[in-house]
Each structure stands twice: as structure tokens, then as C-alpha cells.
Task: structure prediction
Amino acid sequence: MAAVQQTYPGSELDALFPSPSSPPNVLSPPQYPGASPEAVAALTYVLKENYTKYHIYFNYQRFHNNQRPAIEPPEAVTEENFIEHLVDDNFHAAYKTFFGKVFKERGLSATLEEYIFSKKYNFIDGRDASAQPMKLARFLGGYGAEIGIPGMVVEGFAMASVHEHEYLPMYIFEPSDATAIEAATTRLASLSLNTKTSTAHSQLEQLSRTHAFSILAKIKQDSKFVSKEIKKHFKDFDGLISGYGDTIWRSAQQWTIDPSQQGEIEPLMDGTKTKVSHQTSCKWRQSASIFWALQHASNLFPPSLLSYLPQNLQVLLLREYFALTLGWWITRGFPELDIQGFLSATSHISSEAKVANPFFDIVQSAMIHPNNHMLKIQRAFAHFSSIYGARPKGYFKDTELEGAEALDRSLFLLAAGLTDEYMSEGTRPFSQEGFLVKD
Result:
């Protein structure tokens, strides 16, 4: 199809791409100092150029990065034909136009609830699994919600519409008996992520809770994931999910989450710490994995989206994200989480720090690094260190994951430092290899 530049009235583009705003909640990363009118003008110019001139994919293997020219869609997307054109990237511009109108009329919260989380846009009776909409399993948005740029949010919805989906069980959209802690949650005041709220902890602390680390430990012991099966599905995410998607989802559903409590969304960090362990072990094994870099950077997305969702959908989003994380962990080789071994082998690094806060130099270095993934992952390490760094050793001692009691704030700095060291040679790429489990 012929390349085309989409045209929009200036006022419409200005509304889609205003100056960045403050993050929606304290779990979202803060903006760094140094903003200026010139920087804002440059940013909005580039975002508008991307929006009007380029496709969301930069090649024909569905890699994301706005470098393919935009193409004229065969027809407009409407409510009536919305589902029929899903996955077809020839309709990217049409979905962008569709969601631009929907977002303008309804705002982010209503658009998320309807087009990402509703059963209507995930499962349709009578359709084969391969033909189901499954919009929740496609959605990749986050940055737009974080910095308040509607155009980026619209692009996220459009990308979700032309993206291939992964496994999603229909039962998660059906009414079910709430767990004890979720039932208690519904009786508490609504969470405001923009302010600090005070809620009673006593009732919930008495209830049974399942930690994300405990789920990881149980999966490692699950007979379904023996070495033979892991090798069979090594680097084959679709194959793994096709065979074991339900098992992985059932595991993710065991994760106890109570979004009504201030700080309770922080269990998201439990999964993050695990991915940090993976990423740091990558350098320990002389390789920095692009998959773990992208996974860890994507941890910045959910906190901003949570601000726009009711509590039940907050839980659904976090569990869906956790399930996908578990799937990628397994399909990249099911690497051991040798926490004690890693910390022992890298103990000299933190003691070598010569400045009060090495993160300042690390982030500054990442800002000018030729690989744009570097700033994404180092920004994530720095942010999570500031949010979760006060947790002392022993914080995770009651989880079932071996060695978790040794985790503390040093993990983030070690991960960032090792990544910086490995990628310090500007031409060295992130690795696409995994770490296949040993017999």
C-alpha cells in the first residue's frame, strides 16, 4: 500500500500532544530536572511527526519503533467492524483515528474499561481461540498515561489493535467468588493514588497472603516444567503459552494483591525484583539480555495505568502482567534465581562506589548512550531504588524463594552498575540469547 501522511487540524494535534504533565501517582517515575520551553517544543514536534508520518512498526516483523511510513487503510474502523480488522497492521492508521475520537469523548478510564478490560472486547461466544479479540493480552500502553500525552495513549490503543495476542483465559472475565482478602478489600475506602491514604491494616494482616516469590518457588518445583519441556519451548513463547498458558495463569492468580492499602500495589515490585535478578545474572554470565531489559523497563507502565482503573481491574492488570512475566521467564530458559551466589560474586562492586549516589552518574551516562534501551532500563532501576530501596535485608525472609532474605537495596545498584559496565562499549548490543536450564 502507498505511504501517506495523515493530516490533522493544528488544534487537534496540539490537544493530542500538549506539554508533559506530572505523573499520576507516587509509584510512577518522577520527571528529571532540566525542562525548558525548547525541550518541550522539540519533544512535541517529534511526537507529532511520528503520529502523522509513521507506522507503529519499523519493519514487517512487528518490531515497534515508528520507522515504517504510515499507510492509507483500506477502510475506516467503526464499532461495527472493529473486531474484524484486529491484528491487520494495514489498519493501524484507522485504529488511531478511531481511538482518537473515542478518547476525546470518553477519556482514558472509560476507554480502558471498555476496549481493554471488558469481556466484549476479549471473548466472543462461538469464536475459536485464535479469532478472539483478547485486547487485554495485546495492550502495551504506559508512557502516555505517565506523562499525560493523549496522543501517545491513542497510539497505545492502536498498537494493541494491530498487535498479535497471547494466551488469555476466558474465566478471568467471569464473576467469581472473591478471595478472603479481596472481599475485605471491597469493604475498604477507595484508593486515591494521588494522595497518601490511611487504612486499617489489622484485618488484612490476619488473612492468608501468597507472595509472588512463593509462586516463583512453586513453579520451579512444578513437574510440568521439567528440563525436557523447557528445552522444547526455549525461545518459543507462543508454544509455551499454547501448552501451559492455563497453568501459568492459575499460578498468577494465587498472587495476593490488595490495592485498597497504601503501598499495597508495591507487590508489583516483587515481580520486578525477580526480573532484576534475571537481568543482573545476565551480566554475571557475560551477557545483557534485551528481553529482560525490556521486561524491566515495562515495569514503569502499570503504576500509571492503575490510577485510571477501579480496584478490581487494577488486580486484573497486575496479574495479567505477572502471568506474562512468568511466561517469558520460562521461555527464556527458566534460569535459576541464585540470589546468594549472585550477591556473593558481586559484593565487591558496591564497596567500590566512590560517590554518595552512583545512580546520578549512571543515569547521566545512559542519557547519551547510543542504545535508547539503556536509558529506559537505567531509569527503571533508579526509580525502583528510590521507591523500594528502604526495604532491609530479611524483608522477604518469609517467602518460599531460596535466598530472598538476602535481598536489599543493593540489588538495584548492582543491576544498574553491571548493565552500565557491560554496555559501556557503545557498539555492543543487548543479547537476544536466553539462559537454558541445565539438566
Notes: The radius of gyration is 22 Å.
